[in-house]
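So, is this right?
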Amino acid sequence: MFLVPAYAVVVAAPSGPDQGCPSPHQIADALMARIPAVVVSGSEASNPGVLKLSVSGGTGSTPLRIEMVDQGGEARLYRNLTVSERGRNDCVALAETVALIVDRFVHDLGYEAPPTIPAPLPPPDENLARPPPPVVSAASRFDLFAGGSWRGASSEESDFEVGFGLGFERGLAGRRFALTFTGAMSATRSAPDDGYVATLRRMPFRLGFWIPILAGPGQVEPGVRVGVDWLFTTVGSSTVTGTNKTGSQTPVRGELALGYRLTVLRRVFVRIGGAVGMGTGYDWRSGSNNRLFAESRYYVKTGLELGFSFQ
C-alpha cells in the first residue's frame, strides 16, 4: 500500500471530448456521486499533489484500461478490465465500475467520507468551479538501478562500463528534484610496455542532480553529474613473479546529462540517456616514457538502465 496521507488524496477526473464508452463526462458523474470531496476537474490535473485518472480501451477485444498516475508519472493505480460483449454498450455501468475501483483505492489510502451529507454539487464539466487542492509535496521516491553505458573519447579506445546506483526524488515548491549516486567498472584495457604488459582498470563514481519533467508516458530528466574516475594500473609479466608494479590516478570529471525514464510496471522503470563530459584528462607513461594510456579532456557517453522504485 502507498503511504500517502488522506488529506493529500486528490483525484483529477478524465477530460477531453465527450466520446468513448464510458465517456469522460459519465466517469466524472460517477466519481462525484461516490467521492465528491476528493474529485477535481481534468483541467486541474497539473496542480501539485493531484493524481490524474485516465480511462482508455474497451473496444473490440481490447480491455478497459484504468490508470492513475502521480506528478512524477509513476502509476499509483493500474487495472485492466475485460468487458463482455453484452456489457460493452452499457456505458453508465462501466463508468460506475471505474468509480468503484477508484473509491476502493482512495479508501485504502485512508480516505473516509465526511460524517454529514455534503451539499449537492453541480454536474462536473470542463468549467467545474472548485477551489484548488492544497499544495502538497508528492511522496518521496527511492530508486535502485543498474545498467551499462558506452564511452568514447578522441584520444583513447572506446570502452564499456557496468554499474549500479541509488536515487532519491522528492517534490519541492511544486517541482520534482532528484539526486543520484552511481559507481561502475569499465572493461580492462592492456598495452605492451618494454616486454611487459600494462593493464588499466577504470572505476567512475558520480553524484548527479536532476530536474524530472513529465513528457508523454514518462519523464525527461536533464541534469549534471560530478565525480572522479579511479584509474588503477598494473605493469608486470605473467611469467616472472615479483615484477608487478602498480599505480593509480583520480582525475576529476563533470558531465551534462539528459535521460528519459519510463515506468514499465508498477515499480519497475527503464531509463535511456546520454552525456557530454569533461575533466582533467590523463597521459600515463612507462618508466622509459612510452605512452601506455591517455584520455582527452572531453568524452561522450550513452547508456541504458533498469531500476526499481519504492516509497
Observations:
- The CA atoms of residues 232 and 305 lie 25 Å apart.
- The chain has two domains: 6-108, 141-310.
